[in-house]
Amino acid sequence: MRILSKTQLKELVLYSPQHIARLEKAGAFPKRVQLGSNRVGWVEAEVLDWLQTRLDSR
C-alpha cells in the first residue's frame, strides 16, 4: 500500500487542496488518513479507483 502526500495528490488529481477538501466533505472523494498530528495522506489505490470511476463515466 502506498500513501500519497498532498503534493503527490495534487500532481495526480490536478485539483487544489481546497477543492479536494470540499469533495471529501461531500463524500465525493476518498477520505484522508491522519498519519500524525500535522501530517495527512491518501491511499493511492483509493484515489486511482476514484479516477478510474470518473474516466469510466465519461
TrEMBL record:
Pfam families associated with the record: Phage_AlpA
Protein name: AlpA family phage regulatory protein
Gene3D superfamilies the record matches: 1.10.238.160
Native species: Roseovarius pelagicus
The organism's place on the tree of life at top rank: Bacteria
